[in-house]
Structures are given as structure tokens and as C-alpha cells.
TrEMBL record, chains A, B:
GO terms for cellular component: cytoplasm. It comes from Allorhodopirellula solitaria. Residues 207-351 form the 3-dehydroquinate synthase C-terminal domain. The gene is aroB_2. This is 3-dehydroquinate synthase. The lineage of its organism: Bacteria, Pseudomonadati, Planctomycetota, Planctomycetia, Pirellulales. Zn(2+) binds at residues 210, 274, 291.
Length: 388, 388
């Protein structure tokens, strides 16, 4: 059981400029740019949002802005203002904040709203919000008239570094998260760090867990950078934050370019910490733990498991623990209960034929896929970061 | 304004055998076979449905048969029986007959049923029924866990010659037909003419209209064949019916291979007669006219328009009229009202910038896309096949 190595031919190209970075996600005909900027949305020239949109779309007569209610007066308004001078008809659709909007009911309503506002193949859907809005609006775009063009404007750190990159869109079913969806690549991802100003600290930290993940799974120099610059990142200092977002997007873009539709196995490395995290989220109960918080604890359990199996050093675990703590993230969960978590893990999608399979660290910047992990070792790993 | 000609490189390959035909739809990695057989579903060897399924899928642990309630004891039972000896877990889902099943509500329910029966990436969805089942089940397959494998078992003539080929799947919204969907190619299309035994005559004739359409738009020798063999086709004589289905599938497969995602314009030729037909269906009111009946009348109006514009001969119109009449299809609609139909046509998707655009015949086997048709000519074409 092994993870295919990073391929040589695919890469995420980067073009750093003055206070901006542009990353190209290499997917042949479906390649697209990720722009990472600060205070740039309203710029009237080609470097502003409207200019980038024109460049990415060519002809476009109609933009449908689908936005999270929580950012309608901040990021959403900035996007709408930036389009005011354009010769484009604008429609606005608001979606209530929170995971419950990723439902079949809200999707059906959204489809009707798209019909009512006259969306057709020359329209573009612009999703402004966190992962919930990106996933829902992206799926609606993928399916309305069998495909509208789509632009992501992520406004949470998690959406900037994770959900807006990679082309996965979808909704939840009552019995399962992200059970329905489509692979649908955007034409443009527009990230302005100004949008983070209003994001609650806990949500911001949650996104940071995924940022740290990229350092562990495939970018050792970036892990070093995070150790040195964590204070500036916590202060949301623009340049450092842009760099952290940009390196994260590059990591994700590289993995996605190697394995766009989850067929080669390479994409599995993104699940580092996640088999534990999903079990933590599921047993903690809805809304108790933010996803990134669970990922932080999950990475701790995975690293302990790696140490126990002799795959990685104590030093790796020590550095990861220190960075997670410095980032203000939890490194343990007092109530983590192996008796509840292990059965959940056995049902996880990443489990093949009922055998527990984990993405585990080898050294900072490198992970492996380990099958057939003895259950007692899993239990021990959970226990090392709980009170039980 | 022109239609791209048939490309030389793409084609639908045919391998006729004793009493079966296999057509390959050439879509690179997504190529798949269409098997056109008679009395073959239950065969225990590799030429039966189960054998073909094994060959098309390789590994498969779970099949979900989604079937029209109307054929559950006939075609649906034959498919289930054919799978009984296989080492595959079988789930059954029944869908009520009729267009109303292509709804967001039924789709959401279907997604839940897929979840409940434990569908995962190693499952296959087998749609058994007419175009309604194929479109609904195909869209559910395209989107459940972002894509399950999919097999079409069409049981109406229309589904055999049209909806099961081409990869379009989808549902209706209250305000618009086929507004939501995905391009999702099947791994196999299995056609057994035995399934037609139970199909009401009116439904059968409705499918014949599309068969005649292929002759007019791109296969003149096939039009000749239909003129000669229409009696045997009306009797559903297996060999003749297989040939008619096979030539129709080849036509559609050729067009689809040239223009998989409706981007080059080639796929537009399939809309011959359809701009009029949609207006007829819309003004007749729901359920009054079957789709193929409207298409037959629509082709008459289109051919009259072609004659009036000097694009084709009287002789073409005469031959088309004779074949439609011999096929037992309507060639006129007494109540066709230009005052009602033209506004509907102006909103049709095939209308660019409000100007009326039509696929019109040049000679048997060849059509062109004609823009800017004067409205009075359209009115006259409608009048020539109505009492007004
Ligand atoms: N598609 C993918 O590849 C992928 C990857 C990871 C996660 N996801 C999905 O993403 C979702 C989680 O994303 P998320 O963490 O962004 O959640 P979210 O979209 O729910 O946003 C979190 C909260 O922050 C609020 N918010 C958003 N932007 C804000 C801003 N700028 N200022 C103030 N408040 C703001 C939202 O209203 C919400 O309450 C989940 O549904 C998850 O399944 C998808
Ligand atoms: N995807 C595409 O490319 C495409 C192309 C054309 C049409 N369509 C869609 O196809 C649908 C129309 O297809 P259809 O005409 O097959 O309609 P349908 O599926 O509603 O079938 C017509 C009727 O025949 C019944 N039936 C089906 N098979 C039978 C059998 N063997 N014996 C007895 N009764 C049987 C059904 O219960 C139904 O009442 C429409 O929704 C249309 O939008 C899709
Ligand atoms: Zn995550
Ligand atoms: Zn049709």
C-alpha cells in the first residue's frame, strides 16, 4: 500500500509580484489561476477583482453572486461594488450561514433562484463565503443547465487554503456528509486577505490547522516558516498571511493536479489527521468541535501512532505539538473515547475492506499510507491525547 | 451561421454479428458499447446481459437496479433474473412512471435510497426504463459520491434511439424542463428488442419520429431503408427493428462523439423539428401530445419552411410526409396557433439573441442551421400544417 510520489510533470506554477501571488492550478484545458492579494478587490485596473474576472472569463453578460449572509455587508458588498462599473447584469442570492445550508432543500431552492434570475450558459456563478457557500454554489453551478462557469471568492481561512482549491463541490444528505456532489473546477479563485478581518478567531485558527497540515505532509521548508512566523500569522499580518495561504494553495494544487478525480491515490495524503478527526467530530456531536480543531487533535494522534509504529521520530511529534500549541489550537481532547471512535473509523471512507488505514508521518514534509494498523495501537494513539 | 460537418476522425464503430449489433461510442477514455439484441438478456454466456456487464465493468460488487414501476414485472424482472447467478449484491429501487418523477423531490429521495443501500464507488447504477428513468437515475449516478458507474437499459423506443445515447442526464425544475443535470456517460447501454413487446403503440410511434429524424438529418440510405421497411418496423419484427435502432444509435453516437458537451455546434442538428415541437408541446398543454408526435409535426413545419426558403425541394417534403404518415404519426395539428407558438419559440434555448434560428433540411441526409428566418415565414410554416 503506497502513495504515488509527487509527479514531476505537474506542478503549481507561482508568479509572486509586489504584494500579490498568482498560482496556476495545472489541469490542462481546465487550468485556472488563484490570486492571493490584500486590499485589492476594488482596484479599478486589471489587478482588481473585476479585471481578473474579465481576464478569466472572456465574454460574460451575467454574474450571479451567491453569498453567505454573514459577509453580505463586508466581503459580499466589496465584490458587488467592484462589479458596479462593469457591463454585466448582476443577480444576488443570499444563503444562510452554516452547514445546514448544504442540504438538498437549499440546493433545490438555489436551482429555482438560478432559473428565476435567468441564468444561462453565458452566466457565471460567483461564490462569496466559506466552504459551505463554495461547496453549495459550486454544485449548483456544476449542474444548472449541465454546467455554468464558476468563480470562488473564499472568505474563511479554511476555504482559502482548502475548500476553494481542488474542484470538489457538493452537499450533505441527512445520513452523510458530502455524499452528493460533482468535480467542477472554477475559472478563478480570488483571495483577498482583507476578507479575514471579520472572521472570528476560532474560525481563523480552525483554518490554520489545515495550513500546518500542508507543512507536515509535503512541504518541510514551509513548516520551518510557520514555526518562525506563527505570531505574525496569528495577528493576520497581510504579507505573512498571504505567504501562508499561497504555500498552502500550492500544496493542495500540486496534489490535485496529480490526482484530479481521486483515482491515483495521491490525494489521500490530504487526509492526514482526518481519519481521527472525523471520528472526533462524529463522537463530539454536531457543532461542538470545529473541523480544524478536530484536525489538530487528529494530527497529534496520527503522529503518536507514527512514533509508536517506528515510522517517525519523537522529534517530529515534539515539533508538531509545539506548532499546534503556538497556533492556539487544541492538541488533545479530554473526552476522546476509543470505544466510540474506533467503530466510527471502521466506517470511514478511507478504510479499505474494514481494515484501518492511516496517512502517517515519516518526517516533516513526508507521509505514507499505512494499512493494517493493529487496533490496540490506534486505541493507544487516541489515549495519548485524551484523559481516558 | 453553420453547422460543423461530421469530423473524419470520430465515428461510431459497428460490429454486426448474427442477430446482434454492437456499436462503440468513441469518446476516448469514456468510450462504451451499445449492445442491440433480441431475446438475449437472460443468456448465461458472455453474450447475455450479465456477461456484458462483467466485461464492461471489471470489478463490481454491488448493482443498484433503478426501474420504472411499469416494467418491474417484465424488463426489470428479466434484468434481475439475469444477475441472479452473479456474485454481486443487488439492490432494487422503483420509480413511479411518468415525467413527474424527474423532480428535485424524487431526486433527493433517490439519493437517500442510494445512501441507505450502501452505494459506494464500487457500485453500479443500472437504469431500466424509458428516458425518464435514464435521465433521473443517470443524474443520481453522476452526483452520488461525485460519480457512480452507470448502465442504461432503455425499454422505450425513444430511450433506445435517443435518450440513452449521448450522456445527457438530468431532471426538471417547476419552471423548466431538463434545467438541471450533468454530462455522464454510461459504461454500457443494453438494448433488447424484447422489452418493446409491452410498450403501448402510441409510445412506440413516438420513438419512431426520432428514428425518421436521423434519416433526414444525416443518413439518406437509412431514410430509403425506412421507406422500404416501415411495415416490418411497425410490426416490431426483431431484425428490422434492431437495424432501425442500430442505425439511429450510430447517427446519434456520431454526432455526440463530434460534440460531446455541446460546444462545437454539431449537436444542434439533433434539434431538427424540435424548435417547432417544443412550441407545440408547450401550447398543447401538459400530456396532450407525446414528444415524438410533436417532433413529427415539427419536422413537417421545418421542411415546409425549408421549401419556402428555397433550401430544399418539394420532393423532400413529399417523401418525409409520406414516411411520417406510413409510420402512423401525425403530420399536422389542427390547433397549431402561430400567435401562441412564435412567442414560445422566441424563448427557446436554440434562439440566439432573440432571432429565430432553425435546423432546416437541404436534402434527405443533410441539414443546415439557418439564422434570421423572417417571422412571417415561420407563421406560414406553422399554418401549412394546421387549420388556422
Ligand atoms: N470542497 C472541498 O474540497 C472542501 C474541503 C474542506 C472543507 N470543505 C467544506 O467546507 C465547509 C467548511 O468551510 P468553512 O470552515 O469555511 O465553513 P463556513 O462556510 O460554514 O464558514 C464558517 C463560519 O464563518 C462565517 N464566515 C465566513 N466568512 C466570514 C468572514 N469573512 N467574516 C465573518 N464570518 C465569516 C460563516 O458564516 C460561518 O458561520 C464544510 O462544509 C466542509 O465540508 C470542503
Ligand atoms: N437524455 C437525453 O439525451 C434525452 C433525449 C430525449 C429525451 N429525453 C427525456 O426522455 C424522457 C422521455 O422518454 P420516454 O419517451 O422513454 O418516456 P418515459 O420514460 O416516461 O416512458 C414512456 C412511458 O412508457 C412506459 N414504459 C417504459 N418502458 C415500457 C415498456 N417496455 N413497456 C410498457 N411501458 C413502458 C413508462 O412507464 C412511461 O409511462 C423525457 O423526460 C425527455 O426529457 C432525454
Ligand atoms: Zn480538513
Ligand atoms: Zn426529441
Amino acid at each position: 500500500m503506497s502513495i504515488p510520489p509527487r509527479s514531476e510533470s505537474t506542478s503549481a506554477r507561482t508568479r509572486p509580484t509586489n504584494n500579490a501571488t498568482e498560482i496556476t492550478v495545472d489541469l490542462g484545458q481546465r487550468s485556472y489561476p488563484i490570486c492571493i492579494e490584500s486590499s485589492a478587490t476594488g482596484r479599478p485596473d486589471e489587478s482588481g477583482f473585476a479585471g481578473r474576472l474579465r481576464a478569466a472569463l472572456g465574454d460574460c453578460t451575467h454574474a450571479i453572486v451567491i453569498q453567505d449572509a454573514a459577509i453580505a455587508t463586508s466581503a459580499g458588498q466589496q465584490i458587488l461594488d467592484s462589479l458596479a462599473g462593469e457591463d454585466i447584469r448582476i443577480s444576488e442570492i443570499e444563503v444562510a450561514s452554516g452547514e445546514t445550508s448544504k442540504s438538498t432543500d437549499r440546493l433545490a431552492e438555489l436551482w429555482s433562484e438560478l432559473l428565476d434570475c435567468g441564468a444561462d450558459r453565458r452566466s457565471v456563478v460567483i461564490a462569496v463565503g466559506g466552504g459551505v457557500i463554495g461547496d453549495l454554489a459550486g454544485f449548483a453551478a456544476a449542474t444548472f443547465t449541465r454546467g455554468l462557469r464558476f468563480v470562488q471568492v473564499p472568505t474563511t481561512l479554511l476555504a482559502m487554503v482548502d475548500s476553494s482549491v481542488g474542484g470538489k463541490t457538493g452537499i450533505n444528505l441527512p445520513g452523510g456528509k458530502n455524499m452528493v456532489g460533482a468535480f467542477w473546477q472554477p475559472h478563478l479563485v480570488w483571495i483577498d486577505t482583507d476578507f479575514l478581518a471579520t472572521l472570528p478567531r476560532r474560525e481563523y485558527l480552525s483554518g490554520l490547522a489545515e495550513v500546518i497540515k500542508y507543512g507536515v505532509i509535503e512541504d518541510a521548508p514551509f513548516f520551518d516558516y510557520l514555526e518562525t512566523n506563527i505570531a505574525a500569522i496569528l495577528e493576520r499580518e497581510p504579507q505573512t498571511t498571504r505567504h501562508a495561504i499561497s504555500r498552502s494553495c500550492q500544496s493542495k494544487a500540486r496534489v490535485v493536479a496529480d490526482d484530479e478525480r481521486e483515482t491515483t491515490g495521491r490525494r489521500a495524503i490530504l487526509n492526514y489527521g482526518h481519519t481521527f478527526a472525523h471520528a472526533i467530530e462524529a463522537t463530539a456531536g454536531y457543532g461542538v468541535m470545529l473541523h480544524g480543531e478536530a484536525v489538530a487533535i487528529g494530527m497529534q494522534m496520527a503522529a503518536s501512532l507514527g512514533v509508536d509504529l517506528g515510522l517517525c521520530s519523537d522529534e517530529l511529534l515534539r515539533r508538531q505539538t509545539a506548532l499546534i500549541q503556538a497556533a492556539g489550537l487544541p492538541r488533545s481532547w479530554a473526552e476522546a473515547d476509543p470505544a466510540k471512535m474506533v467503530p466510527v473509523m471502521a466506517h470511514d471512507k478511507k478504510v479499505a475492506h474494514g481494515k484501518l488505514r492511516f496517512v502517517l508521518p515519516q518526517e516533516i514534509g513526508s507521509v505514507g499510507l499505512i494499512a493494517d494498523v493493529p487496533q490496540e495501537k490506534v486505541v493507544a494513539a487516541i489515549r495519548s491525547w485524551s484523559d481516558r
